[in-house]
Design a protein that fits this description.
Length: 198
């Protein structure tokens, strides 16, 4: 899953949300230098990634992309799925996405001093582009895919992946909806289990 899903699945717990968001930039056991609740967020992020990668519905989505995008297929599906979460946001919460995003950006700004350098560098661009809200539109997702292609030094062709999203839009949305139901339940159980260990 991509940024929005990881944030949402943190269940509005601020420190866990931070840990979940910064986890991609934290390797091995270096997460142990953070406070316990942030550690829980990092471990929750790792659980979400593992659960997502092994889920048969997600594999069905990635298989559709694999002939063209190979090992980048999973990254693309993560981005697609964030689009469907943003687009269908009102199905999952009553808080408007714009307000939710502002609250999250403020959380990061208030805790800027504990963010890894990578996240500190990313934050101004995220806020300026209002990434979380932009995911709801095809134009926003296309912009993300173009940016990801640039990050892979133009080797992934991810900038073209908007074509598959449009061509198989209903299939991807149906798969996301079914998978996200499973993921929410699994993540909630995992969060309870992690909390009991701290």
């Amino acid at each position: 899953m991509n940024y929005l899903a990881h944030i949402y699945l943190s269940e509005d717990l601020p420190q866990i949300t931070i840990g979940n968001f910064i986890a991609d930039g934290i390797r091995g056991k270096s997460y142990l230098k953070f406070p316990k609740t942030i550690q829980t967020g990092v471990l929750l992020h790792r659980f979400i990634d593992s659960y997502t990668d092994s889920h048969p519905i997600v594999r069905k989505s990635t298989k559709r992309l694999h002939p063209k995008y190979h090992h980048y297929s999973g990254v693309i599906v993560d981005i697609y799925y964030d689009h469907f979460l943003a687009k269908n946001w009102t199905k999952y919460t009553t808080e408007p996405l714009s307000q939710y995003a502002e609250t999250f950006y403020q959380l990061l700004q208030d805790n800027y001093h504990i963010l890894p350098e990578r996240t500190q560098q990313l934050l101004p661009y995220m806020i300026k582009g209002n990434w979380l809200v932009s995911y709801a539109s095809l134009e926003g997702i296309e912009s993300v895919l173009i940016g990801m292609n640039k990050r892979t030094k133009y080797q992934s062709n991810m900038n073209e992946a908007i074509q598959e999203l449009v061509a198989y839009y209903n299939e991807f949305e149906t798969e996301f909806t079914a998978f996200f139901e499973d993921l929410q339940q699994a993540t909630h159980k995992q969060l309870i289990a992690l909390d009991s260990k701290t």
